[in-house]
Amino acid sequence: MKTWNGPALPQTPVLSPVLQLHDTASGTRHEVLGRDGLVRLYVCGITPYDATHMGHAATYLTFDLVGRAVRASGLAVRFAQNVTDVDDPLFERADRDGIDWRDLGAREVQLFRDDMTALRVIPPDAYVGVEESMPRHAQRVAELLDNGAAYTLPVPDEEAAEPGVRDTYLDLARQPSFGQVSGWSREQMLDVFAERGGDPDRPGKRDVLDPLLWRGARTGEPSWDGATAGPGRPGWHLECTTIALDELDAGFDVQGGGDDLIFPHHEMSAVQAAALPGRPAFAQTYVHQAMVAYDGHKMSKSLGNLVRVSDLRAEGIDPMAVRLVLLGQHYRTPWEWTSSLLEAAQARLVAWQEALPGSADAELVRTLGARLADDLDTPAAVAAVDAWVAAHPAGADDGSGHLVTDSIDALLGVQLRG
Ligand code: 5CA
Ligand code: ZN
Fold first, then answer.
1. Are 9 and 230 in contact (CB under 8 A)?
2. How many domains in the chain?
3. What is the pTM of this model?
4. N or C: the chain end with fewer CB closer than 10 Å?
């Protein structure tokens, strides 16, 4: 898929320390060192049936900062992201609104691109939708069936689009690595499996938690040629298994998303990779953004308690103020969006712009790099700039250059100079 236009990235001559990130799977910190100077980053993309809200924005900003911190430590980044453009929520919303699901997806993906551009989020190198990558998903299912890692169940006659169609599941009992990403107990898994897209009540499954790899064609639902698996469409987790391995290769560095993806999505994406021939390793580090709430609940498209990036843009709110709200929060601490946070960020942006630091204070730049490398401690980085701005009153310009503004731009993604 087409991505979006990336922001210009100023060069900052001051090298930051190696990025350290909290890994969900081990519960410890990992150094993001990459291989041969390259860090491979996969971030789960949107399901495009409604507009980007602040929860999404927080998640994509967090991984934008991962990319910026990695670059600041002197390494290169290869960044891949999927788009869940074939899934039930899209079909349901399109039905409700009487529009074609492809048109709905295309419209919302375009809005996402515009939101990401406005927020100065660096685009992925590979932005891959499910429909455009369909044969690759079917191929993975064939491989899992061939090596005995998967099994099929007949689709009930009253649902089947044609006689003989089958659903395909991964047989978790054969996968010793199951559970290693989340570290959750079976009880915890069962608690959320159904509400997060699982089908524990499907008769005939060997284990109620077995993830759906391929959904056999149903009457009234779009379907594609699944070779050995028959007509149908891929299960959600398979989408990210396939795209991450194809675009980044085994053992890539970071898998990212919101913490609502820890289980089942990231757990299943990883175990499905481990079940493939050659048992390719999945991610080395799993990084999760805490949930952003609004009106006392997780901000979510399904609940409808949304603050949309596009609505704020339409109201004329400077996207850099939105970015500053997000930077003021640590990614691993849940928080709630409020209008007073936005007002404070707008005031901060004005203060930073008015100080217009025309300076090459390398010490501040070193501090910013160090705070970011410290598991993305953005609140501390923002506080360091605040302190610097307070010590350099409006108009102060020591004439030594633009290292400070360039670094705030490169490291935090906040553009202060027009
Ligand atoms: N398409 C899948 C991933 S493959 C998906 O989860 N799409 S999504 O549109 O529902 O969410 C996109 C990203 O935003 C995911 O990483 C999700 O974890 C994150 N996200 C969703 N709601 C919130 C929220 N309230 N706070 C923080 N992150 C959120
Ligand atoms: Zn995903």
1. no
2. 2
3. 0.97
4. C
